[in-house]
Amino acid sequence: MRFRPEHAELRAGVRRLLARHDGGAAWRLLAEQVGAPGLAVPERFGGAGFGALEVHAVMEELGHALAEVPFLSSSVLATQALLGCEASPARDTWLRRLAEGQATATLAWEEDGRAAGEGGADASTCWRITGRRPRVLDAATADLFIVAAATGDGPALFAVAPDAEGVTLTERVPLDLTRPRADVAFDRTEALPLTFQGERVLADALTAASTALTAEQVGGAARCVEMTVAYAGTREQFGRPIGSFQAVKHRLADMYVALESARSLSYAAAFSLDSGNAEAWVDASAAKSACSEAYREIAGEAIQLHGGIGVTWEHEAQRHFKRAHGSASLFGAPEWHRRRLESVIGLEGGAADRHPGGALPS
């Protein structure tokens, strides 16, 4: 289970780019120079035709830099959902646009009440969606909403234009300001059906997104360890660096052990998904649970060991602390993923819903 030299080159290129650019400039260059949006998109749609390992390499660097780009929402979550849908002119066109970095998309799937679609029996008929989807990632800047909604035959996915009549967007003020979200409401909004096999597509998208998110969490945790070790080597008390005190050494060692344990599980999930393992969701849930808790613990220790400076608005430590807590609840909290694994390890009890926001719409 080893990454190849080209993965190291990809990581290095992304890190150099993010060291010089952020925000919209970084996203544009990630598309133009790295081809990041199309890494996991097949070549017939204008992508690079790679897989989970390349996505993992990019996500780890994005987490290390706390980059504010829509890679997770558009290039992972929405793109994987589109790839799971049946071929259609609309799907194929959007995949090309996303792969080339010409547009971004997001998946509106979290449960809050009910979002229902009404229309004909096939994808050629115009449908209309009514309901609400909360906490949609990067909704304010997306060019396409992929919306999960209930139909008479079960959950389905629809393509909705953000400026369509009946769409109302309410931006949230999240704990993690580097990851914008918004609540999106639909009132008989015109929608184009993409698939009526929504449960299967959403389950696969959840596996891919959870796996990718663990890479971001490992990258963020690694940055916390790096800056805390550096600070402990320069901050002095009683005439000596605090890193020379045994108690601080032990805490730094614990941070490193937690990081490497999380990294191992994250990489195992990536290799499982990349190999096409049918049980990749098991590795994804195990990694998501462990990496979420490791990042939170490591970010908390970074704050503690930096002292008062670690909670100031200007310091990077508090931003990682917020990202750690925000990402822990994204795509299912650690507890939800552990409940998912109960049947796998032979424990009896109520299994978690397959969807982190509750049962899939039906």
TrEMBL record:
Source organism superkingdom: Bacteria
Keyword Flavoprotein attached: yes
InterPro entries with a match to the protein in the record: Acyl-CoA_Oxase/DH_mid-dom_sf, AcylCo_DH-like_C, AcylCo_DH/oxidase_C, AcylCoA_DH/ox_N, AcylCoA_DH/ox_N_sf, AcylCoA_DH/oxidase_NM_dom_sf
Residue intervals of the Acyl-CoA dehydrogenase/oxidase N-terminal domain: 25-101
Cofactor(s) needed for function: FAD
Database matches in Pfam families: Acyl-CoA_dh_1 (PF00441), Acyl-CoA_dh_N (PF02771)
SUPFAM superfamilies with a match to the protein in the record: Acyl-CoA dehydrogenase C-terminal domain-like, Acyl-CoA dehydrogenase NM domain-like
Domain (Acyl-CoA dehydrogenase/oxidase C-terminal) ranges: 198-341
Keywords, ordered alphabetically: FAD, Flavoprotein, Oxidoreductase
Family note: Belongs to the acyl-CoA dehydrogenase family.
Name of the protein described by the UniProt record: Acyl-CoA dehydrogenase
Lineage of producing organism: Bacteria, Bacillati, Actinomycetota, Actinomycetes, Streptosporangiales
